[in-house]
Amino acid sequence: MTQATFSLATMAPAMPEIALVAMVSILLVADLFFKAHERYLTYVLSLVALVGTAVLCATTAGAGSIVTFQGMFVSDLLSQVLKVAMLLTVAATLVLSRSYLELRGLLTGEFLCLALFGALGMMVMISAHHFITLYLGLELMALSQYAMVALQRDSARATEAAMKYFVLGALSSGLLLYGMSMIYGGTGSLELSRVAQAIEGGGRNTLALFGLVFVVAGIAFKLGAAPFHMWIPDVYHGAATPATLIVGAAPKLAAFGFIMRLLATGLQGLLTDWQPMLVILTLASLAVGNIIAIAQANLKRMLAYSTIAHMGFVTLGILAGTETGYSAALFYVIVYALMTLGSFGMILLLSRAGFEAESLDDFRGLNQRSKWYAFVMLILMFSLAGIPPAAGFLAKLFVLQAAIDAGYTSLVVYAVLLSVVGAFYYLRIVRLMYMEEPVSEITLDPRAGTRWMLSITAIATLVLGLAPAPLVELCARAITASM
Amino acid sequence: MGWLSLAIWVPIAFGIAVLLVGSDRSAGATRWTALAGSILGLAVCIPLWTGFEPTAAMQFTENAPWIARFNVNYHLGVDGISMPFILLNSFMTVLVVIAHWEVVTQKVGQYLAAFLVMSGLINGVFASLDAIVFYVFFEAMLIPMFLIIGVWGGPNRVYAAVKFFLYTLLGSLLMLAAFIYLYQQTNGSFEILDFQKVPLPMTAQVLIFLAMFMSFAVKVPMWPVHTWLPDAHVEAPTGGSVILAAITLKIGGYGFARFNLPIAPDASHALAGFMIALSLIAVVYIGLVALVQSDMKKLIAYSSISHMGFVTLGLFMFNGEGALGALLQMVSHGFVSAALFLCVGVLYDRVHSRNIADYGGVANTMPVFAAFFVLFAMANTGLPGTSGFVGEFTVVLGTLKVSWWYAFLAASTLIWGAAYTLWMVKRVIYGAVANDHVAKLQDVGRRELVFLVLLAVAVLAMGIYPKPLSDVMNPSIQELLRHVAAGKAT
Q1: How far lies B152's CA from each of B29, B109, B160, B228, B243, in Å?
Q2: Which among A367, A427, A469 has CB closest to B67?
Q3: In chain A, which stretches have pLDDT less than 50?
Q4: A455 contacts in B (CB within 8 Å)?
Q5: Most confident of A79-93, A180-194, B257-271, B334-348
Q6: Among all residues of chain A, which has the CA nearest to that of B147?
Q7: Measured between alpha carbons, how far is B372 from B353 in angstroms, rounded to an integer?
Q8: pLDDT band for position B136 (50/70/90)?
Q9: Residue B144: is the preceding peptide bond cis (ω within 30°)?
Q10: Mean pLDDT of chain B
């Protein structure tokens, strides 16, 4: 239902976005007037903005799915779930990064405002119902992130990472745009539901099919699925850890929303055409991610490859092409964001002024330095490896189940075998923490915020593993609402 | 909360409590808390034995939805096949806690917590009637075991721990895929009992059988996927070896009886020859391998593999004697292998060597210990009057009904078993005092006497009067055999 007239009512579904824009704009100006010792206010206000927007998203619930702005923008349960999860992830990222950024003089208004603009971009992406909105949201997010990676400008590694990220990101955006333009040519519309109608109605649409290939390539780039994964290890490794976390955690949620809008809403008619493409992405991601991760001595690089492997699981859920598959993938990305927060949070925890704790050896003997943080990391690693009772297991289970449902049994066996390979490198961290002597005796004394946030990620991982029913239900309802 | 839930969650709750409050400074309090937890864990299992009806039905059932959307239920229940193992496990946990007392001095809280949590998880494995709940317990068990071997083990512990973990993980993930497939076939049920009923074509049965075989064969362990076991046993601390040998190996045998046979009965018949061949190789070849070991723990580890060969052999005879013998052998082996590992632990704590060559004439300085050691060694060789005899003899009887040659090869273990066990006893216990270490040995203390006496009583009681145990098991075994004989191919 498209509303033709422009009124306050048409803008209501975009309330959270509008509120966030207002708050970022205020913050951008206010930051200039804060004195040096008042700078923490920017940080506090950013958190307020993020959490406040999340609350707005959660409470401004409309019935069913509301399409507004002449079909540009959609608000439904899926967008609500993804936005709340994404905003909280960004907020958690800021909490975890605070000490690290302060010690390096990076906790500036720019960093925080860019993080908020990135979050805004992701919100637009998640709620997009039109190719142009999708692209706008994507670029707002991406441009903020390029800048955040580059912000540590005296670090050659960060600059190189930002350069690579920008060039490859621009290339993938180009591919995406090219694909979208072809689909426009083939269907005569940029609005997702009209595109879907045109595809359902017409016969074989070669032009749209051709566009689809580019779109899928663009999506794979953004998601970090092999063979379009080349930027992931370099960017994860090169960027300052908070920027890695900004790039690595919340955008996966947004990318999932992006895929849902594009493939599931817009191009579901071409399901049988994009399924084989995702099969290839899954095959390649699982192999590349799990196998190359073994050879990494740097934890950030290792987690980067692990991301690629996990994205293989997400695409495995999506390629099932059923509601069960989509909701399994949604559950997976939410759990994945949680685990990423925790594992990169641990790197931030161990880092000190002038010292980056990103080598695997920095985790040696952690159990003797702090029983609790070693346990937190233990939970996260077993969760990433997919061992119950952590949530990572159920996430994998649901995806595998959806894939078998859709008849991809051999693909499931393949995924399962590579999971064993994956377990090896997660296990290595646990081994280092518990079975080796520590190299550093410096006691860990993090801020209360970091301490609580890390504990929350570990406990939430366990709780989601033991009592997953509410989130499973929510995911399933969100997907049903969006279809 | 039913008794089964208590049997699972009491040890886990105590484990978490010990983990949170336990520290090396207050090691005494930590130890007593853990002991209280393990005894309470055993106490809540006693009603399972006293209140057990000798029928094949699932008893003490509990059922609550867990993940409603996928029809996963927290469904517990036991029959005659699973109930004895819950008791065995809870009993062993008490022994392990007693055995660690003066031996483990570092990270006591974490050590005890790992064992208590593990004990609860193992009870969960035996009590689950829902495949996903089973799988969760089955896999979660790897975490404490990995830490037990890797943190408190011997010099090569890290290698052993990783090998143990990856071997078992590979097997169990394939089983998970089989579970999901069966979920499809039963139209959305993860109930193990529904899995057992659903008709399946032969090809599917064979694939399911093999997927589950991968999982349980690694656990048993069967030749040729047994190689993790000697490494893990040798490197694990005494308590770890006890739990591994006495309990986790039994999960493999239990898995065959609960999953492979009833879910894929026709495939079980078709692949029986394969299973029998692997079992006999384990019995004979691994028995010979045990003969040449110079490390006591390794010897007992190989002896375990050889004895577990009897379990799989008995199960795939498809007759009452074979299956009953297999289950009795599992319980008996639980007592005997635990006792032998604890005996080696007693020696190791004093001399810090597991090498047979470092001992000799221990009977001169430790007469009481020597008496117990010889008793358990005899039980290991299957001497009548000990528990070892009951299981092995019944399996051989069952085998004889099928083929004289199988029985002949299986019975040869009475020779190999006697050879490696008695030869070890001769070299360690008898003869002249070999060196200064042995001359300085102190006989067992009161604490050690407690677990040795408990185990000796168990071994003898089961050897002299196994009827209560077989009465519990028999109805379920008969039901299982009826089901397997009927088949369900489509």
Answers
A1: 20, 12, 12, 17, 14
A2: A469
A3: 1-3
A4: none
A5: A79-93
A6: A434
A7: 20
A8: very high
A9: no
A10: 86
Integer-rounded Cα Rg, in Å, for chain A is 21
Is B157's CB within 8 Å of A435's CB?
yes
Give the count of beta carbons closer than 10 Å to the beta carbon of residue A167: 12
CB A412 within 8 A of CB B180: yes
Chain A contact set for B118 (CB, 8 A): none
pLDDT 10s digits, A407-437: 888 898 899 889 888 888 898 889 888 888 8
| CA–CA distance, A309 with A359 (Å, rounded to integer) | 20
Q: Do A431 and B162 touch (CB under 8 A)?
A: yes
Q: Residues, chain B, total?
A: 490
Query: Encoding tokens for residue B279?
Result: 């079992």
Which residues of chain A does B70 touch, with a Cβ-Cβ cutoff of 8 Å? Answer: 398, 401, 472
Chain segment A95-135, per-residue pLDDT in tens: 999 888 888 888 888 889 999 999 999 999 999 989 999 99
Full DSSP string of B68-119 = GGGTEEEEEEE-TTTHHHHHHHHHHHHHHHHHHTTT--SSHHHHHHHHHHHH
| pLDDT, average across residues B272-290 | 89
Determine, for residues B70 and A405 on separate chains, whether the beta-carbon distance falls below 8 Å. no
Q: How far apart are CA B477 and CA B380, in angstroms?
A: 25
Look at residue A5 in the predicted model and tell me its pLDDT.
Answer: 64
The whole-number pLDDT of residue A88 equals: 94
Say if CB A392 and CB A386 are below 8 A apart.
Answer: yes
The letter for the amino acid at B162 is V
Phi, psi of B75 (to 5 degrees): -110, 115
* B22 vs B159: which has the higher pLDDT: B159
At B226, list the tokens: 């047994």
CA angle (A425 as vertex; A423, A427 as ends), nearest 5: 65
Q: How large is the average pLDDT for residues B451-476?
A: 88
CB pairs under 8 A between A and B: 86
Burial label, A204 (beta-carbon count in 10 A; 0-12, 13-18, 19+): exposed
The distance of B34 to chain A (nearest Cα, Å) reads 19
Buried b (16+ CB within 10 A) or exposed e, B140-160: bbbbbbbbbbbbbbbeebbbb
Residue whose structure tokens are 């994507």: A138
C-beta atoms of B170 and A398 within 8 A? no
Question: DSSP code of B256?
Answer: I
pLDDT (mean) for B133-145: 90
Give residue A370's pLDDT. Answer: 84
Give which of A313, A420, A428, A471 to mutate to test B binding, by max B Cβ within 10 Å: A420
**pLDDT for the residue A3:** 47
ipTM of the complex in this document: 0.88
- Residue B266: phi and psi, rounded to 5, are -70, -40
Residues of B in contact with A397 (CB under 8 A): 132, 176, 180
Cβ–Cβ below 8 Å for B177 and A400 = yes
pLDDT over 70 at B246, yes or no: yes
